[in-house]
TrEMBL record:
Residues 1-116 form the Toprim domain. SMART domains: TOP1Ac (SM00437), TOP1Bc (SM00436), TOPRIM (SM00493). It is an enzyme of class 5 (isomerase). It comes from Salipiger bermudensis (strain DSM 26914 / JCM 13377 / KCTC 12554 / HTCC2601) (Pelagibaca bermudensis). The record marks 31, 142-143, 146, 158, 298, 519 as: Interaction with DNA. Residues 862-906 have a biased composition (Basic residues). Belongs to the type IA topoisomerase family. PROSITE patterns: TOPO_IA_1, TOPO_IA_2, TOPRIM. This is DNA topoisomerase 1. CDD domains: TOP1Ac, TOPRIM_TopoIA_TopoI. Residues 687-706, 860-906 are annotated as: Disordered. Residues 166-171 are annotated as: Interaction with DNA. GO terms for biological process: DNA topological change.
Length: 906
């Protein structure tokens, strides 16, 4: 039987169904070789030779493929149809050749398919090809570049900037975008302006709003009404005049559907509509692809196969009628910069199946498939036909003019199925207007705008004057506005920007954005990306000492050259040589600098943000605590901070940016005789009970929690009250004594809220993450004991907490409980350390002990029969294995310093 190799077991299972028993389908479980994180893995002195190493986890998978080849001399490499897939196939061929599993007469073929359907797989098998050498060379070039940048630049960061984690070729450029946007926001000076509108009514009693566009016979620009005095005059000018309809103009217009999804637009829309991060989006898309529901999800292409277009048009006619099908198919062509990975668009493999008919269990998969299905259907539907109406309203003396706009949908077209999300706030010009006739009176409506006035007035700062004003008849309203800084990036808008600049590729967007969050250079709050102090310091360092290599144009041009390599138009070693010549010189030059020199440069570069002018004109660098020392940029293992030069006599510190940037402290109130303070330190804002004294050198304090995902919102200093501070200062909270002895406590940790308990006979505490932030303060004994019991019964679940038991099935013949559990990828049965997925057609409540025993036996057999022995003997063998692993870990210690290579991002 020919041996077919794919990346994942899920993909293998689906393909095996189509190929049948004539083929052996195995999984490589991703990449099988990588560059070891040590010196010399890429050697510029030896023509950039690369030394590959098979990972410990991959050895058994390569061995399984080699074993299968003993009984058949045909190997079909069916990995993904992109650069990474081509590289995996090349690595497999190389590794198997070195093992002598591939011989001179072995038939090695490469097949690719854009969708895992029976038709696509069958067609691919009939059209094999050779491994694409230029595409492999493009992979080698990228991998070498990432190694050279990560392995050489990251150690410079470690030595010069304590707390910095890593740098990467695309990762650092992406971080620069976020940091520079934050600096734009900090430098932004809001400008005041006022808007005036009126609530008018037709002679038939139908109300509508109109905004002021002309005053004193002149057209108004945005900033013509600059303050409350001018706004009051404008309100009175409108309210004191009779108004009439000067003109009514209705224009037909149409709106075409968006193109079908490619990787970047799918990530953007999933973020807009669901708040789904790029990683989560690609993970759900990967599983949909492997199950055969959608086409390949890493693509720069928006074109659709003719047969798919025809199927889409048929589905539209069947569901909505022929009126929704345009006369000819819509053809979409790529406009994106560097459309290198231009496979077909992301679309369903069967347009007759909507999300409901697939009965997908996972919420992310269900939502994403529904989004892809609707977008694909919409892209081949008729345009929406609209009518936009503009009404001009004027006073008879020509001194005042207002405008009302609106639109009506005459034919919904593709809007019946799908409307694209927006990153900005929509205008109000899509409101429906009542029937308005030219020449008729525009009366002031009796309903008035008093409610809107009250809402706008709530925002007013009493010291700064009114934020709104209203006419005596309540029908004319003036509201204060301020220009807004550019918004922080979301993952969606960041991917869009990266795509516009030509940096990164479909296969790297998610990993790059994930990496800068994993490194704690960036945090995500309310779906917005905010740079941490260490991320800001790293960016400024790179801009001052490695500006070329974090340049947008340089990175995009390098991507262009890599595309040329993949097209066979450039030699990849020539590209590497050109890059290394200048980059190695920059590394050598910067390595000679002392940390103090680096900090002086960064201190000066960040001065406008670190030391903004004070209102009283005093020196912004003078320490606000001791009044004598000068403030300087300093670094620690957690990142940069501003500290007093008189340390240790003065211990003043504050974060580089964000809350408390001026080092101000705020007393929130008294608790008995204790003062409760809000302060700012190098690790961020915190609350403290009292001040240090000789008797109490370390008064109780608690950091304000930062946002950690959707369940743990951050606490902003501006929102802190005495009550909230006192709540924080109660932590860690003692919930009570556990029935087995020992106190149960709740607290906030790095990864969110948790409870902990250590029984008298336990060597270390047991921790359980809590799902809701408020549970830290509210969880009771009964619930805490239950959670701890579940965790002890199911250890090793990590931050996700203990799995939920859906059904107890009974005892295994060899001892031990068998049960059905709720898992991230669906329900599964578990016995000891063996987990086996429950078939999709089986509901958890219908699972039987006999069925579970069969599933467990099958899983144990796939693992090499490790569970055939009695439980005690098996445990003994595993202990021995762990000892061997421990030795290997020790041997690798020197390489740990060089982890930059492994961490380097594309």
């Amino acid at each position: 039987m020919p041996v077919v190799v794919v990346e994942s077991p899920a993909k293998a299972k689906t393909i095996n169904k189509y190929l049948g028993s004539d083929y052996t389908v195995l999984a490589s479980y991703g990449h099988v070789r990588d560059l070891p994180p040590k010196d010399g893995s890429v050697d510029p002195e030896e023509d950039f030779s690369m030394k590959w190493e098979i990972g410990n986890d991959s050895r058994k998978h390569v061995a399984a493929i080699a074993e299968a080849l003993k009984s058949d001399n045909a190997l079909i490499l069916a990995t993904d149809p992109d650069r990474e897939g081509e590289a995996i196939s090349w690595h497999l061929k190389e590794a198997l050749t070195k093992r002598r599993s591939i011989k001179k007469d072995t038939d090695v073929r490469r097949v690719t398919f854009n969708a895992i359907t029976k038709a696509a797989v069958t067609e691919a098998m009939q059209n094999p090809r050779e491994i694409d050498a230029p595409l492999v060379e493009a992979y080698l070039a990228r991998r070498a570049l990432d190694y050279l940048v990560g392995f050489n630049l990251s150690p410079v960061l470690w030595r010069k900037l304590p707390g910095a984690r890593s740098a990467g070729r695309v990762q650092s450029v992406c971080l620069r975008l976020i940091v520079e946007r934050e600096m734009e926001i900090e430098a932004f000076k809001p400008r005041e302006y006022w808007q005036v509108k009126a609530l008018l009514s037709t002679p038939r009693g139908q109300d509508y709003e109109a905004r002021l566009t002309m005053l004193a016979g002149k057209k108004l620009d945005r900033f013509d009404i600059e303050n409350a005095t001018q706004a009051e005059m404008a309100v009175q000018a409108v309210a004191s005049r009779k108004l009439e309809i000067a003109s009514v103009e209705a224009k037909p217009s149409s709106r075409n559907p968006s193109a079908p999804f490619m990787t970047s637009t799918l990530q953007q829309e999933a973020s807009r509509k669901f708040g789904m991060g790029a990683r989560a989006c690609m993970s759900a898309a990967q599983r949909l692809y492997e199950a055969g529901h959608i086409t390949y999800m890493r693509t720069d292409g928006i074109d659709m196969a003719p047969e798919a277009t025809a199927a889409c048009r048929d589905a539209i006619a069947d569901r909505f009628g022929k009126d929704y099908v345009p006369g000819s198919p819509r053809i979409y062509k790529n406009k994106a910069k560097n459309a290198q990975e231009a496979h077909e668009c992301i679309r369903p493999t069967d347009m007759t199946k909507d999300a409901a008919s697939l009965k997908l269990r996972e919420d992310d998969q269900r939502k994403l498939y529904d989004l892809i299905w609707k977008r694909t259907l919409a892209c081949q539907m008729e345009a929406a036909r609209l009518e936009r109406t503009t009404v001009e309203i004027a006073s008879p003396d020509g001194q005042v003019g207002l405008r009302a706009t609106g639109q009506v949908v005459l034919f919904d077209g593709f809007l019946r199925v799908y409307e694209e999300g927006r990153d900005d706030v929509a205008d109000d010009d899509d409101k429906r207007l009542p029937q308005i006739m030219q020449g008729e009176a525009a009366n002031f409506a009796k309903a008035g705008l008093r409610d809107q006035y009250a809402k706008a007035s709530e925002k007013a700062d009493p010291a700064a004057g009114p934020a709104a004003m209203i006419s005596g008849n309540d029908a004319v309203l003036g509201t204060q506005s301020f220009t807004q800084p550019p918004p922080r990036y979301t993952e969606a808008t960041l991917v869009k920007k990266m795509e516009e600049l030509g940096i990164g590729r479909p296969s790297t967007y998610a990993s790059v954005i994930g990496t800068i969050q994993d490194r704690e250079y960036v945090r995500k709050e309310q779906n917005r990306l905010i740079p941490e102090d260490k991320g800001r310091i790293v960016t400024i360092f790179l801009l001052n000492f490695f500006r070329t290599y974090v340049g947008y144009e340089f990175t995009a041009e390098l991507e262009n050259e890599l595309d040329e390599v993949s097209a066979g138009e450039m030699d990849y070693k020539a590209l590497l040589g050109k890059f290394w010549r200048d980059f190695s010189a920059a590394i050598s030059e910067t390595s000679e600098l002392r940390i103090s020199e680096v900090l002086d440069v960064l201190d000066e570069a960040l001065a406008p943000q670190l030391y903004p002018p004070r209102e009283d004109g005093s020196d912004p660098r003078i320490c606000p605590k001791c009044g004598q020392g000068r403030l300087h940029l300093k670094t620690s293992r957690t990142g940069g901070f501003v500290g007093c030069g008189n340390y240790p006599e003065c211990t003043y510190t504050r974060p580089i940016a964000g809350e408390g940037a001026e080092g101000e402290e705020k007393m929130l109130g008294l608790d008995g005789e204790d003062e409760i303070w809000l302060k700012a330190g190098r690790f961020g804002p915190y609350v403290q009970r009292g001040e240090p004294t000789p008797e109490n050198k370390k008064p109780p304090r608690a950091s304000l929690p930062k946002a950690r995902g959707n369940f743990l919102p951050g606490w902003a200093p501006d929102d802190m009250t005495l009550e909230k501070a006192l709540t924080l200062l109660t932590l860690p909270r003692e919930i009570g004594m556990h029935p087995d002895g020992g106190v149960i406590k709740s607290n906030l940790g790095r990864f969110g809220p948790y409870i902990m308990h250590q029984a008298p006979d336990e060597e270390k505490p047991v921790y359980v993450n809590l799902k809701e932030f408020q549970e830290v303060f509210e969880i009771g004994m009964n619930h805490a004991v239950e959670l701890l019991a579940e965790k002890r019964a199911n250890p090793g679940r990590g931050r996700g907490g203990a799995a939920k038991v859906l059904k107890d099935l009974g005892e295994h013949p060899d001892g031990g409980k068998i049960a059905v559990y709720e898992g991230r990828y669906g329900p599964y049965v578990k016995w000891e350390k063996i987990n086996a997925t429950l078939p999709k057609e089986t509901e958890p409540g219908d699972a039987t002990l006999e069925q579970a025993l069969e599933l467990i036996a099958e899983k144990a057999a796939k693992k090499g029969g490790k569970k055939k022995a009695a439980p005690k003997k098996t445990a003994a063998k595993k202990t021995t294995a762990k000892k061997t692993t421990a030795k290997k870990t020790t041997a690798k210690k020197p390489a740990a310093k060089k982890a930059a290579a492994k961490k380097a991002e594309d």
